[in-house]
Amino acid sequence: MKFYRYDIVHYDHPHRSIKLYCTEYNLIKKTPCGYWINGKWGTDKRWVSATARKRFAYPTKKEARINFQARKQKYKRILKARLDETEESLRLIRKFKE
Question: Is the pTM of this model over 0.70?
Answer without folding.
Answer: yes
